[in-house]
Each structure stands twice: as C-alpha cells, then as structure tokens.
Specification:
Blueprint: E1 8-11, H1 21-27, E2 34-39, H2 51-60, E3 65-70, H3 74-84, E4 88-92, H4 99-109, E5 112-117, H5 124-128, E6 135-139, H6 155-168, E7 173-177, H7 185-191, E8 195-198, H8 200-203, H9 208-221
Parallel strand pairs: 1-8, 2-3, 3-4, 4-5, 5-6, 6-7, 7-8
Helix pairs in contact: 3-4, 7-9
Bound molecules: D-xylitol-5-phosphate and zinc ion.
Length: about 230
C-alpha cells in the first residue's frame, strides 16, 4: 500500500460528530491518514469505541486508518485492528508486555507498527529498538481528551528520535498528538516530527480543507534540519 509522503496531517476523529461519522470522514478527505483514537476507560479515563466501529470506519473512510490504541493489554487486542486493515496500529509502550514482539506481529499482519509514549515516559527504551517500529508517537498532551494545551517540554524526545533515526538511516515516522495547531505545529516540525495529529484544530475550523492545507504548509516550512526562514 502506498501511503502519503511527509509532512502528513492526520485529523483525529475524536473531535468529529460521532453520529455523523461518515459525513465528517468525507470532510477530511484532503488530509493524509485518519487518526482513530481507541480508549478503554482503563488505560485512560475516557471511552470511545472498539473494533466494531473501527471496522465500519475502515469500510467508509476515503483515507487509510492511523489507529491509536489507548488501551490496557495491547498485546492481546492490537492485532485485531491490524486484521481489520488499518494502515497503522499504534499501542502504548506503558501498556505493552512485549513491545518488540507485538510490533513484529502487527507487521506480519500487514500494518505499520507504532509505539506511543505519554509525556512523562522516557524515550530511551525506544531508541534502542528503533528498527522494530514504523512509527513513534510522542504524546504532546496527557492522553485521554482532545482540546488540551501542547506541552513543549516533550520536544527533546523528538530531537533524540530524529537524531537516532538519521544515525540508523531508519524510515520511521515521528508523530505528535495533542494540542497541535497553527501556533504549535512549527515547533514540533522543527524538533523532528513528520506526522501531525490534529483534532480540534481541524474540526473546529470554518474551512476544514483550507486548515489542513495551512497546517501542512507550516509543517513543510518548519521541517527539521532546514532553515525555516528561507521558505
Ligand atoms: C488525545 C488523543 C488525540 C486528540 C487530540 O488523547 O490521542 O488524538 O484527539 O486532540 P487535539 O488535537 O484537540 O489536542
Ligand atoms: Zn490520538
């Protein structure tokens, strides 16, 4: 499956209207992947939906699925989301018993394997095993809810990931999620992110298509390793 090139804007349907999901999936057709937040009320204090809903989103969405599992025991549950056909399945490092083995299973099924870390979780265990993952998600808010403020103190983890990826010549995607807006996307891009989740910034815009384009343009102008002032 060929997936969009960086910078990627992945709208989070946590900010969509859950009873008009098909309409809202159509509204973000100009984006790159659709970010699907699965929450179980255990790993995070909020509840969204499970495999039955994700299967319908997979059937309905014009875009490939970027599933973010905020659930306990992903070793048990994550493979089902890869079986549904999600392009990418990301589980939390804090919740996984054997992250490297789980990533291998997800890849074997045909999904990109992602690992996520909360703002307070160190990135070092991932740096050691970077080749095991296709995406690393650095949470820029505490997971659980949309509409929170971006935490700039998470940016050194992205720089460490970008450095290690360059050192290994790894093709891993570096994703940020939480508080990404016109005001914050530039600093995340400069730190090394190439894949940007945005919920309220996209669905709260009067012109969703224009907002997606503006976010992508800003990310491109500020991309890591370039002098953003030149563009
Ligand atoms: C939060 C979710 C995010 C959320 C982001 O736990 O993982 O994907 O929808 O929402 P905004 O962009 O509004 O911070
Ligand atoms: Zn998310």
């Amino acid at each position: 499956m060929s997936l969009p090139a960086a910078p990627r804007i992945n709208p989070s349907i946590l900010s969509a209207d859950f009873v008009n999901m098909e309409r809202d999936l159509g509204r973000i057709a100009g984006a790159d992947l659709v970010h699907v937040d699965v929450m179980d009320n255990h790993f995070v204090p909020n509840l969204t939906f499970g495999p039955q809903m994700v299967r319908r989103i997979q059937d309905t969405s014009p875009l490939p699925l970027d599933v973010h599992l905020m659930i306990a025991d992903p070793d048990r549950w994550a493979p089902e989301y890869a079986e549904i056909g999600a392009a990418s399945v990301t589980f939390h490092l804090e919740a996984a018993a054997d992250p490297v083995a789980l990533a291998r299973r997800l890849r074997d099924i045909g999904a990109r394997a992602g690992v996520a870390i909360k703002p307070g979780t160190a990135v070092d265990p991932i740096l050691e095993h970077l080749d095991a993952f296709d995406q690393v998600l650095v949470m820029t808010v505490e997971p659980g809810f949309g509409g929170q403020s971006f935490m700039p103190e998470t940016m050194p983890k992205l720089r460490a990931l970008a450095d290690e990826a360059r050192r290994r010549d790894a093709r891993v995607w570096l994703q940020v999620d939480g508080g990404i807006s016109m005001d914050t996307i530039g600093q995340a891009a400069e730190a090394g992110a190439d894949t940007f989740v945005a919920g309220s910034a996209v669905f709260g815009a009067a012109d969703i298509d224009a907002r997606i384009t503006q976010l992508r343009d800003l990310a491109r102008q500020h991309r890591h390793g370039t002098d953003s002032l030149e563009e």
